[in-house]
Every structure is written in C-alpha cells, then in structure tokens.
Amino acid sequence: MTIQKYARADSVEAAYELISQSPENAVIGGMTALKLAGRDIGVAVDLLGLGLDYISEEGRVLRIGATSPLRSIELSEPCARACSGIIAAAVSRIGGVQLRNHATLGGSVLSMWSVSDTVATLLAVDAELEFYRTGSLSLESFLERPVRRDILTEIRIPDIGLRCAQEAIRISYLDFPLLTVAVAAREQEARIVVGARPGRAVLAKEAMCLFSQGANPREAGVKASEELDFGDDQRTSAWYRKRLCAVLVERSLNEAML
Amino acid sequence: MKLSLIVNGEAKEWEVRPGEFLAETLQAHGYASVKTGCDAGACGLCTVWIDGAPALSCSTLAARMEGRSVTTLEGTQEEAKAFASLLVAEGADQCGFCSPGFVMLVLAMKRELSSPSEESIRAYLNGNLCRCSGYYGRLRAVRKYLGLSKD
C-alpha cells in the first residue's frame, strides 16, 4: 500500500471534508484491515484524538465510539455485561493482544469481513451505526447497502438485556472460523445470524420465523441450514458448513434460552 | 514529514514518509530488536510498546506516533534480562528471531495480568508465533518468570 499524505483531522467535520475531496482519500482506523487490503491512499485521514474512543452505558443502550480499540471493548465491564458478554467475547478472538490494542471496532464493521465473528455478533444484537452525514442506520441495512464516503462515529447496541450466545468452529485458535453463529433472544423471538459461510453474515429469517412460532432449537437449526447458501473454500466444504450450521444454531439457541 | 516522539525515554525528531510504518522507521534508526515477519499483523515479531501497551509496529503508521512514547527491547534491557535467561535455560530461544517481540509481550503481560491463569497466559500470548522452538519451552519459562512454577 502507499500513502501520499497523512492528516490528523481536528474535527469529524474536517475529516469528512477531506474524504469528500477525492475517492483516493480514506479514513484510517487501526490500520490493520486497510493494510491487508493493500489500498493506495491519497490522504490518510486519522481520527485519533477526536474523542471517538469511548464506551458508555445509558439505560439499556450501549454506545461504543468507532475508534475504540478492540482490546478496550474486551476489557470493558459494560461490554462484558451487555448481551451475555458476546460482544466482548467476539472481539477477544481477533488476532493477538497487540493487534487488538490498535484495531478498532469501527474498522471491524467497515471492513465487513465475511469471516468476522464481530460483525455476526453485532448483527445478531441489531446494532445501529451512526454516520456523520448519513445519520443512523441499522447494521443490517448497512451490510445490504454499504455507506462509503462518510465517517462512522458510533456503534450502538440498542438493548443490552438480550440473551445471547455465539458459537464458531475453527481449525486452530487464531484461524478464521469455518462457520460462525450468533443468536440474540428475547422471550420466544430470536435473531439468528450465520457468518463465514464463507459469504458474509446474514440473518436466517425463515429459521427466526419458525422459532417464533414455537419450533424448538433443533428445528430452527435445521431450517437455518436449509435456507442459507454455503460454499467451499480452502478451509472446508459447503457440505460440512451446512451440517455445522444446524448444530451451532441449535447449540446457540439452547444456550441463549437458558 | 517531521515526527517528534519519545523512544526508550529519549526525545527524537525524525523525518518520515507519510506511508512509513513504525517498524521500518525503528529499524532504519538502529533499533535492531524490531523484527518484521508476516508484515500483516499476525505473527507478533514486531511487537513494541506504544504508551506502555504492546502494539504491532508493522501495522502502525509512524506518523501516528507524534508526541507518543515508544519502547523497544533496547529500552527494557534490565527488565528483560531475567526472562531472557529463563528462555535460554528452557531451550526456548532457538533461532531467536521471534524472541524480542515475545519478550516485549511477556513483560507487558506481567504488568497487565494481576493473577494470571494458564488459560489467560495462553490467550495473552497467542499473538506471537514461533516456528522453531515449539511453545512448551516458552510456557515453562513464562511460568517460572511469573513465579507459577518452582522448578
């Protein structure tokens, strides 16, 4: 990757102006995903020092600044309490401590990696994203129609009281998952998300509907495995992912409903 | 562009390129302990402390270090000596290429974890890869360093 110029923005507005000037200009977060993408950048706009590094609990809402390092989320008590602790647990599986000290939650969301446990988890808890110009929109909408040329300022978890569970299968501890499942339940309603299919995380809507009509976790798991598409890659086969899906959804629902 | 930072307690003023990463800058100024392995944020060889916290210098823009404090193994010689000798005693140094980053991570872990368990030690250290010593010698050295193992 190359960077022509580095600029530390003195406000979110100034950062927005800079990225609006050229499609080659880009906001840098923790630099981890951006470096792997190997992009050639005109002006690298740094949000460091803009006060977007915070975690706060307001009633049932958890607010996380977009530049909050993953490590601070992992160690945060409000994050450990929220949604059965699945957000803190999901970020703790990303790389080593050193990487999590500078990789940011905003960067994890915007990179939209299909193998991301974090994106799957945030989608399950119906996270909302706050952009400087676009305003707020759900992560679900963002994944379907990503916002480019804007500044992500905050990620919000609207209900920290959800009962949640997240399951993933990996070949080794630090590897990307073969499949990742996240579930967020409220009474007999549940949002069921399956990621690393190897396509991006999506809601298993038919399984969610079936579960809300009284189906048991096993039936919901089978339905999720039937309704979603799975693919082959170097890690495993579509056949195996489909079977994992049924088991992990069942397991997650059972855990969340305990 | 000009960069003012503190390295191992000493104020520095360096000229850096906007796209230059910290590992490259430190290596160019003679900090030979800073290695580069995967150059993608996975292996931990390039670990230094930024404002006291372990970070990957291969994935950190040097320009972001303006006004901040960076510590390399050269700046922790005394503190590192005790652990380094345990690494050698356990036969866990081997080629030694990953050792500087590993030592920086272990010293940071000792400060950060108040009562480390086997599980929390393994979780903390999983971001530093070694391809020749295996991990058991390292873990024995770590346990002794933390006072968790007597022999």
Structural class of chain A: alpha+beta
| Strand portion of chain A | 15-25%
- Structure classification of chain B: alpha+beta
By DSSP, the count of extended strands of chain A is 12
Mean pLDDT of chain B: 94
- Low-pLDDT segments, ≥5 res of chain B: none
Order of helices and strands of chain B: EEHEEEHHHH
Q: Residue ranges of chain A: pLDDT <50 for 5 or more in a row?
A: none
Distance between the termini of chain B: 52 Å
Q: Give me the side-by-side strand order of the main sheet of chain A.
A: 4-5-8-6-7
Distinct helical segment count of chain A: 12
Largest sheet of chain B: 5 strands, mixed
- The value of Rg of chain B in angstroms is 15 Å
> What share of residues of chain B is helical?
25-40%
Q: What is the CA-atom radius of gyration of chain A, in angstroms?
A: 18 Å
- Coarse shape of chain B: elongated
Number of beta strands of chain B = 5
Question: What proportion of the residues of chain B form beta strands (DSSP E)?
Answer: 15-25%
What is the number of helical segments of chain B per DSSP (H or I, 4+ residues)?
Answer: 5
